[in-house]
Automatic annotation (TrEMBL):
Pfam families: AIM24 (PF01987). InterPro entries: AIM24, AIM24_sf, Trp_RNA-bd_attenuator-like_dom. This is AIM24 family protein. Signal peptide: none annotated.
């Protein structure tokens, strides 16, 4: 190999999912250990890997995704190495190890197919924007990969009385056991978010984490849903 390119070669496999740089996900595929991934996210693979877009198990759950926030998913199966990316976004790899996480669908890149998942309405926000906010909740033993538009910050909410406030358009994911409520602010409308109309914030409290990206999503997550 050309010596200047040696530094970009894949490192030996050490885990089911791991980063290759900041913007690419490497997945060690094994027969019987399928993966669900965002459609169109495959950039390369080695070995024998098959793809099934919108498999029946996904269609069954996605029927509840009435908000239009759902990310089209494909089932990946086989043996080899699979590389995924999403338009150069940063990739964050999480081993749930029996825990759960609530993820904004636009930030969901891939997760182990054996994990328990479904679409859920975020309580406490409907009064702010019609149908409110919907997220994907994933739990169990396995791996999840998220994307972030830039290097994210992970805020530990702790267990105190103070709340953590987040612009919903910059929100990536949070611990599902956190309490969530909406807050409307008129005075801050020119400072928070993209600054047209009322400014909405999401307040989190309890034990858990919130993942925030340094860029706002291209769609208003608290717009009225049909």
């Amino acid at each position: 190999m050309n010596q200047p390119l040696m530094g970009y070669a894949p490192a030996p496999v050490t885990a089911r999912m791991e980063n290759h740089g900041d913007h690419m996900l490497k997945v060690a595929m094994q027969t019987g250990n399928d993966l669900l991934a965002r459609v169109g996210s495959m950039v390369a693979y080695e070995g024998f890997v098959q793809y099934e877009p919108n498999p029946p198990a996904v269609r069954q759950i996605a029927r509840d995704w009435v908000t239009g926030e759902g990310a089209p998913l494909m089932k990946c199966s086989g043996d080899g190495l699979l590389y995924l990316a999403d338009y150069g976004a940063n990739v964050v790899v999480i081993n749930l190890n029996g825990d759960g996480i609530s993820v904004n669908a636009t930030n969901l890149l891939a997760f182990d197919a054996q994990l328990t998942w479904g679409v859920e309405r975020v309580k406490g926000l409907a009064k702010f924007a019609g149908q409110g906010l919907w997220n994907t909740r994933i739990s169990g033993q396995g791996w999840v990969a998220l994307t972030s538009r830039g290097k994210p910050i992970v805020v530990d909410c702790g267990g105190g009385e103070d709340e953590t406030y987040v612009d919903p358009d910059a929100l990536v994911a949070w611990s599902p056991n956190l309490k969530v409520k909406g807050k409307r602010s008129f005075k801050a409308q020119s400072l928070i978010g993209r600054g047209s109309g009322e400014a909405y914030q999401m307040a989190f409290s309890g034990q858990g984490i919130v993942v925030v990206q340094p860029s706002e999503d291209s769609t208003d997550r608290l717009r009225v849903r049909g």
